[in-house]
Fold each of these.
Amino acid sequence: MRYIPAVDLWSKGLQEAITRGNLRLQPGQWVYCGNPDHLSRFVACTDGYFDVVHWNGSGQATTKRFMQRIECKRMEKLYKSDRAAWKVQHAEMVANWRLAA
């Protein structure tokens, strides 16, 4: 998938197009919210909620914050997968805790 020119997330119909899957933005896509002078970075759209790193004073600062946000998302995904694996491995113990409560 290729990046497209920065899009205005506030433009009519764009949020609906993204939510419905008619327009796909990849993480890192430059976007803006009404003011094209202050570019933001798209992270994700989940259940109709937009995760966007907004303007931080400069493109370089916005990109730095975006990279930090992507790292947080990566760590969250690892945590959730590790937690799910732990629950599967320890299902009997968890069931016993629930019975004891």
Amino acid sequence: MNLITQIVVKTNKKLEEVDVYNDIQRQCRLLKMSRRAIVVEIHKEIYGFSGKLKWPDGSDYKKPICIYTEFDLENRWYTDFLKINSDGKPASRSCKYNRIRLLDILLQIKASKS
């Protein structure tokens, strides 16, 4: 097990990069989690993470007070986020950076456990 003690949280500018965005979306599709289950998983993993979350400049990333308020109640956004074209690329691009950031943090935490 490769437990990490610190995660560097991606900035909006980093999340806008095509390769970064596409990779987050691809990894989320591989999780095969429902739109409701993914929010529960984010909550469980982020609040269960004992390491530090830092911005690239070294300042602390403050976890949202409530993960559930970051997503719409039904989280239909996530279903749209996962859609791909016939070429395997995202069907659309979201600018919901806080949501994408939370997904990326989840993916980094999960990667540290494998």
Amino acid sequence: MSNQSQNKTTQEVSQEALELYISGKFPSQGSIVRHLLGIYPHINKELLRIALLRRVQRYKRINSHPALTTECESVGLPIENVSNYWYKGKQYSIHVKGDKQKTYEKNLS
């Protein structure tokens, strides 16, 4: 193992994990974490799992709500802290809540 790979931080490895997630080459986030732990055994598994989860959530939020992302950036709000918002149009005012659906994987924990 090279010194360069031993020196990578959890933050750097989680960015690499997000890139693997986006590539679609792995069936799950868990398989990405296991793969990267084989390359970077000094990284804490739980910290990497949580970091990847947060990066994936942010990635999905940015890509599914580009106008929200633009607005948050323009006023200096971190998009990862947005769990619900109001849409105010000419005829409707709509309150949108974050995705609260429980997944099968979450129910197993």
Amino acid sequence: MTTKRIAAELTDDTAIQAEIIYTTTRLNTEPKKDADKLFCELAITAIEKAIQSCKEATGVQFPSYQQLIDFLTKETQGTPKQDAVTIRSFSMDVDSYQAEKDITA
């Protein structure tokens, strides 16, 4: 059996993101050692899928860390869901501004 020990200290936003993932996937209900193992398995599976998607989209057979980060960042920018949220927020702000303008007029 092959083993790989991973030790990492997450800080700031990354630590918060990890806690959110632990909670939403209910890993926080598992014993810490089991939860950390499951978290790593989940991360590795997601990374493998991201590498495959990056390969297919860019043609780079072995993308580097930076190429993968750039690909993932680009993939999440400008998605229809995000655009809809931005538009909805913008229209809400306009409505609020209009309501304030009517009240003060």
